[in-house]
Amino acid sequence: MAKQLLAMDNNLNLWLETVDPSSRLVTKVQVDGNTEASNWQALDANTIYVKGTDGNLWLEKGPFGQVPLPSCGSNNIQQQNQCRIQVDANVASVNNTSAYYGIYGPMGAPAGFCALDDNTVFVLGSDRKLWLEYGPFGQIPLPNQAPTLGPPRSCRFLIDGNVINYQPIPSPVDDFYLSGQIYVLGFDGNLWLEWGPFYSGSSGRVLVDANVLDFWAIDGNRCLVEGLDGNLWLEYGPFGQVPLPTFPTQFPPALLPVGFSPFPPSARFQVDGNVGFYTWLNENPNDRTDQVAVCGMDLNLWLEKGPFGQVPPSRVQIDGNVGGVALPGWLGDVSSTSGDFLVLGWDQNLWWEIGPFGQVPLPQCNGPVSSTSGCRTLIDSNVDDCQVIPETGYGTFLAALTRRRSKAAFLRKKRAEKQEVRKSFPL
């Protein structure tokens, strides 16, 4: 089955690329131009949200190839093809953040938007107000109003203000405004877990941590948190105590019966230090330990395996001189030494790398993917950013998290910017 991804070149053109696993041939078609790095999201190969450099956010329907697509004839975009409809304007840009956050967030830019499906999207405005917006789209801005009976339609609800970054937790899309959960990072470095109902002024929140530079939410009770000192922690709720008690190491989950927790409540364990970017991957299917891909400030990319608490943890190197990474999930779950990643080098070459890992760099692959391992294939060059297209069955909502999980992280020069941010804050 062909594999697909979005890739943005260094001329700000966005491409839909298709990789044939047997021949390794890559074909591409242009989706749009003048796009902003990390501010686009594919729900599938035919439905893509795209934010332009002018701050306008569009929902675009393929097949693609015409740039720009014409406007849709009506706001019922679900029934149309080869057109686009405007979702919002003045969407937050990766270039207009404060001095505190003139950097890229977890696995990419602070998200100007995060779509749950083709009718529901979080939008962060240039004024740093975070909204939950429901279509049909086309009216700019959508009215700010309480929902009527049934799913919300053509309206928006304010979630929070002074927002730097955010990440929603999976929840039924139509009910998110009632009881959904979302992590929100403010300009003051405080990270909150917030929950609905958002429209009534009665939403609630609890403080997860302070002096936070970055984070990666796993679920409503687990979160990777990066402090201003560059230390990365795996934190478990219930939250509210700051900082959480620090434990030296997790109990090995393989020694516990299924269903028993390998950690005490309200605790944190250090994963690594001096981190650049990272992504939580999955629980190892063999022993139920957590796995995290971590790229250090030295640009070495590691596959790290719990139990965490000791630094460095058990780990194997994936690659070096890395400018960004994406987890395709094309070949299934990642194990302690194997799996597959899209790896964007500092030289802007994009590679599909297949484990087992440990040799750096991996040799070039020969033959179809099904018969190769421990090798890599060049997908494209002059790439600034990328995102994997969710495959059938992956789930509409999880496509939103795929945007964070799969987009290229360090664009060029961002490593130096992150170091400057740390220097500007007392630790």
Name a few traits of the molecule.
single chain, 427 residues, mainly beta, Methylamine Dehydrogenase, Chain H, four-stranded antiparallel beta sheet, globular
Write the layout of secondary structure elements.
Blueprint: E1 3-9, E2 14-19, E3 26-32, E4 35-44, E5 47-52, E6 57-61, E7 83-88, E8 113-117, E9 120-124, E10 130-134, E11 155-160, E12 163-168, H1 176-179, E13 181-186, E14 191-195, E15 204-209, E16 212-219, E17 222-227, E18 232-236, E19 267-272, E20 275-283, E21 290-296, E22 301-305, E23 314-319, E24 322-326, E25 340-345, E26 350-354, E27 375-380, E28 383-388, H2 398-406, H3 414-423
Antiparallel strand pairs: 1-2, 1-28, 2-3, 4-5, 5-6, 6-7, 8-9, 9-10, 10-11, 12-13, 13-14, 14-15, 16-17, 17-18, 18-19, 20-21, 21-22, 22-23, 24-25, 25-26, 26-27
**Largest sheet strand order:** 3-2-1-28
- Helix and strand composition category: mainly beta
What is the CATH C level class, in words? Mainly Beta
Distance between the termini: 50 Å
CATH topology: Methylamine Dehydrogenase, Chain H
- What portion of residues is helical? under 10%
Strand content: 35-45%
For the record, the count of structural domains works out to 1
Number of helices: 3
Strand runs, count: 28
State the gist of this model.
With 427 residues, this protein is mainly β. It contains three helices and 28 strands. It is globular and about 55 Å long.
Description:
The protein has 427 residues and is mainly beta. It has a single domain (3-423), classed as Methylamine Dehydrogenase, Chain H (7 Propeller). 5% of the residues lie in helices and 40% in strands. The protein has 3 helices and 28 strands. The strands form 7 sheets. It has a 4-stranded antiparallel sheet. It has a 4-stranded antiparallel sheet with strand order 4-5-6-7. Strand 13 (181-186) and strand 14 (191-195) form a beta hairpin. Residues 95-109 and 392-416 have low confidence and may be disordered.
